[in-house]
């Protein structure tokens, strides 16, 4: 499907701002090609929302302390979406109070909005939907697949990690049927996402390979889908931001039902050597403050007119207005 220029987005740099505000204020799958039928435009309406308005009792712009992380994780949610369960499971993609489900539509624009957007080439660069049919370019469709394991057996596979110090060294529910990004012969990131339906545990690996001597991966992480617990500060995961990949993916089941209730994972080519909560890690190449840090949240402007888009595209665009897009990894071009 054709890529679209990232028009009308806004970004928030720390969701902790609104989550903390509600606790301290007294007042308070993959899409088929037909899913995005949006007209192209040369205009750019991207901007950023701040993480530190004083009225929101927010943490610092960069480097939220562990205590603030915990407060934000426990804080009442600004709104309570009725998130649907992941298909084939009884599991939700993290609790309703998770930062993934936060409504960021009311946060003010960040002072560095114009600079951060300029660094991404937002005025001329198209936002590429990195999912859908591969038309023979590879053996499987584009995108990061999700494997659901329904067996009651405990995970059995030991995985040897390249970045073992920051990986969760437990047994993983991997087998010959585990889907790998790009297919078994892929040369790219080779992510594997596995949900254990019985325990609602999420297992993710990067550079995943099944060899003659067992399974290997560059890094791996495990989450409980019932918890908002984050990884230790400074730790990676299967993604550069140290966050799970699954809750940020656009899935066909949610678009088909007419509601995406979470932030959408996206990429840029360059980021700062810093990160914003809830990100835990960065893969930045510069200290330039005019470049966005890992974890920055971008949202679509409220004024952006979505009426000219297909019904399914409008589902995605509404999510971009309410929940935004999170900068959670690096890629050569901006993709979701």
Description:
- α1 (16-24) links the parallel β1 and β2.
- Mean pLDDT is 80; it is low at 17-81.
- Strands 1, 2, 10, 11 and 12 form a five-stranded mixed sheet that branches. The protein has a four-stranded mixed sheet with strand order 3-5-6-9, with no helix packed on it.
- 13% of the residues lie in helices and 16% in strands.
- By secondary structure, it is α/β, with parallel strands linked by helices.
- It has helices at 16-24, 66-74, 113-120, 252-257, 311-322, and strands at 9-12, 47-49, 146-149, 159-161, 192-196, 201-206, 209-211, 214-217, 219-224, 264-268, 297-300, 325-330.
Per-chain topology:
Blueprint: E1 9-12, H1 16-24, E2 47-49, H2 66-74, H3 113-120, E3 146-149, E4 159-161, E5 192-196, E6 201-206, E7 209-211, E8 214-217, E9 219-224, H4 252-257, E10 264-268, E11 297-300, H5 311-322, E12 325-330
Parallel strand pairs: 1-2, 3-5, 4-8, 10-12
Antiparallel strand pairs: 1-11, 2-11, 5-6, 6-9, 7-8, 11-12
| Radius of gyration, taken over Cα atoms and rounded to an integer in Å | 19 Å
Provide the structure class: alpha/beta
Q: Ends: how far apart?
A: 13 Å
Helical amount: 10-25%
The number of helical runs is 5
Mean pLDDT: 80
Low-confidence region ranges: 17-81
Number of strands: 12
Q: Biggest β-sheet, characterized?
A: 5 strands, mixed
Apparent shape: globular
Strand proportion, as a percent range, falls in: 15-25%
Q: What's the order of the H and E elements?
A: EHEHHEEEEEEEHEEHE
């Amino acid at each position: 499907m054709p890529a679209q220029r990232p028009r009308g987005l806004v970004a928030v740099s720390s969701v902790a701002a609104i989550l903390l505000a509600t606790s301290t204020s007294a007042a308070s799958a993959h899409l088929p090609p037909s899913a995005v039928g949006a007209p192209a435009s040369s205009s750019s309406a991207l901007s950023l929302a701040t993480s530190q308005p004083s009225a929101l009792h927010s943490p610092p712009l960069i480097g939220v302390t562990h205590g603030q992380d915990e407060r934000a994780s426990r804080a009442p949610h600004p709104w309570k979406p009725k998130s649907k369960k992941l298909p084939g499971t009884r599991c939700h993609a993290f609790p309703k109070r998770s930062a993934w489900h936060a409504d960021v539509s009311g946060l003010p624009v960040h002072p560095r909005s114009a600079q951060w957007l300029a660094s991404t080439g937002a005025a001329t660069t198209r936002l590429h939907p990195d999912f859908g049919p591969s038309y023979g370019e590879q053996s499987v469709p584009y995108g990061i697949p999700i494997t659901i394991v329904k067996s009651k057996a405990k995970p059995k596979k030991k995985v040897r990690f390249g970045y073992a110090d920051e990986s969760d060294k437990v047994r993983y529910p991997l087998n010959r049927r585990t889907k790998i990004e790009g297919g078994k012969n892929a040369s790219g990131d080779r992510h594997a996402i596995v949900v254990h339906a019985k325990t609602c545990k999420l297992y993710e690996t990067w550079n995943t390979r099944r060899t003659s001597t067992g399974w290997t991966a560059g890094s791996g992480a495990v989450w409980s889908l019932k918890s908002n617990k984050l990884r230790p500060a400074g730790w990676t995961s299967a993604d550069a931001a140290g966050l799970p990949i699954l809750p940020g993916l656009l899935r066909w089941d949610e678009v088909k039902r007419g509601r995406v209730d979470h932030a959408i994972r996206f990429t840029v080519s360059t980021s700062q050597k810093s990160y914003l909560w809830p990100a835990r890690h960065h893969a930045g190449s510069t200290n330039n403050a005019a470049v966005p840090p890992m974890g920055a949240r971008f949202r679509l402007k409220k004024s952006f007119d979505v009426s000219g888009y297909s019904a399914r595209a409008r589902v995605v665009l509404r999510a971009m207005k309410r929940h935004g897009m999170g900068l959670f990894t690096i890629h050569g071009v901006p993709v979701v």
